[in-house]
Amino acid sequence: MAAMQDIGVLTDLSRSQIFNLRKRFLAEGVAAPKDKREGKPKEILTKKEREAIIETVKTKTPKDVGYAGDHWTTGILGYWIAEKYKAACKSKTSLYLVFKQANFTYHKPGRAYHEHNEREIEAWKKETKPKMNALWDKKNVVILAEDEMILTTQTAIQKVWLPQGEYPKIGCSTGGRKRRSVYGFLNVRTGDERSFKTEKQNRYVAKEILEQIRTIYSKQKIALLRDNAGWHKGSVAQEFLQQDGNFEIIHFPRYAPEENPQEHVWKSGRSTVSHNRFIQDIDGATDELIEYFNKTKFRYSLLGLSPIS
Question: What is the pLDDT of residues 260-297, one digit of tens each?
Fold first, then answer.
């Protein structure tokens, strides 16, 4: 599909024209692609202008050229080209090609936390990496990354692609919103996931889940990486951990969910199972999500350490 778009941009031909040309080439050989039009088609932008646009995208932000925003979008780029070069791009595909030539990739913006402290995160990495390296080589230690998520009957929508003129219609509940919690533990060394459905997230549930994890890994020391949620540090869970005596708790830095590979497990599950869907049966949907988690290998790295193949 990407190759088809590039051909369209470079040749100024439609999809049907490209396929027709291919058909003629198979029938007529090299004579088929010959341009029957007199003269050379006029280019919208000169080579020098295209190179200047790519250099601007690579070295400047929209704010530098008079637009609000720190990051380029197709909309901003299109407006800027039209204003500066008096040239209107026929489609977004032309703009995609500019970003591609500038070695840009598409990203969906994530949440940014005001309390996010890069220095604190770097200090945590420096302190934790040697500890993780030492644990990684111990066969009697299982390394788990933990987190919790909530699934609700409210429909969650991601970006979708549809034919022009059509619009997505997603069912929405008009009754009371129901929710279920999921506790997830990713075995960072193997990529295996263990997820559990609960109705709440609190210190008592946290203890019950830890008991189940201990049953699964009954004879191993557990290095457990988790965030700083209050129920993780509550007295009930702490008493269990002290009585067990074979857990090593490592807390992720504050406001840095991107460091926890379990967060990527949630993202995969939402994208594959629960997004763009009207959830009427909350328990059925949660069970389906947990089945996906527990049957899938998630090979996400932690501090440069990747699952063993």
Answer: 999 999 988 888 886 655 667 889 989 999 999 999 99
Sheet arrangement for strand 193-198: 193-198, 179-187, 141-152, 221-226, 247-251
Distance CA 22, CA 194 (A): 51
- In 3D space, the residue among 92, 102, 32, 113 whose CA is nearest the CA of residue 71 turns out to be 102
Topology adopted by domain 119-160+170-295: Nucleotidyltransferase; domain 5 (3.30.420)
Q: At what angle do helices 261-269 and 282-295 cross, to 10 degrees?
A: 130
Domain residue extents for the chain: 2-101, 119-160+170-295
134-172 pLDDT tens trace? 999 898 999 999 999 988 875 454 444 445 554 555 444
To which H or E segment does residue 224 belong? strand 221-226
